[in-house]
Amino acid sequence: MNPLKAIMQQAVSGMQLESQRIIVAAENISNVDTPGYKKKMLLIEPQGTSADQFAAMKQILDESPGQRDYNPSHPMADQDGYVTMSNVSLIMEMADLRGANRTYEANLNAFQQARSMYTSLLDILRR
C-alpha cells in the first residue's frame, strides 16, 4: 500500500473519531443542568491495524448516580422531595472537548502534510 495514502486514511479515521468525541462532549455539556440526565461516553473498540481501526464506536451511558438536591417544589422531585441531577462534570467535559479538538487539528495537519508531500511527488514525476 502507498504509505502516503495510508497516512491520509489514518488521519481521516482519527478525525472521524475526534468528531464523535466532540459531539458526545457537546451533548453532555448542553445537558449538564438537566435533572436525571446520564452522561454519555464513547466506547472505542480497536479493529486491528487497518485504516479503519476505530470504526467500532458506540455510545454508552455512565450509570453513576447524580447529585441529589432537596427541592420539593420541583416537578421531578421524588416522594422525599429530592431531585437527582445529572452526573456530568462540566470541567471534565470541557477538558475532554479541548483534547478532542486539539487531536482533531493534529490529524488534520497530518493529512494536509501527507497531501502536500503527495502533490510534490506528483510534480517531480511529471518533469
Share of helix, binned = 40-55%
> Total helix count?
2
Q: Record the strand order, biggest sheet.
A: 1-2
Radius of gyration: 21 Å
Count of distinct strands: 4
* Biggest sheet character: 2 strands, antiparallel
What is the averaged pLDDT score?
Answer: 88
Order of helices and strands: HEEEEH
Show unreliable segments. none
Strand content: 5-15%
Going by helix content, strand content and strand pairing, the class is alpha+beta
Gross morphology:
elongated
Quote the distance from N terminus to C terminus. Answer: 24 Å
Structure description:
The structure is a single chain. The protein has two helices and four strands. The protein is elongated. Strands 1-2 form a two-stranded antiparallel ribbon. It has a two-stranded antiparallel sheet with strand order 3-4. It has 127 residues and is α+β, with helices and mostly antiparallel strands. Helix content is 51%, strand content 14%. It has helices at 3-30, 90-126; strands spanning 40-45, 56-61, 68-70, 82-84.
Key structural traits:
127 residues; two-stranded antiparallel sheet; two-stranded antiparallel ribbon; 51% helix; elongated
How is the topology of this model organized?
Elements: H1 3-30, E1 40-45, E2 56-61, E3 68-70, E4 82-84, H2 90-126
Antiparallel strand pairs: 1-2, 3-4
Helix pairs in contact: 1-2
